[in-house]
Amino acid sequence: MAVIGNKKYSKQIEHHFSKYPDKRSAVMPLLYIAQEEYGWVNDDGIQEVAELCELDPTHVKSIAGFYTMYSEKSKGKYWLQVCTDLSCALRGADEFHKDLKAYLEVEEGGTTDDDLFTVEHVMCLAACDNAPMLQCNFHYMENLDMEKMKAWVEEKRAELQKELDA
Ligand code: FES
Question: How does pLDDT run across 69-89, given as a tens digit for each residue?
Answer without folding.
Answer: 888 888 898 999 999 999 999
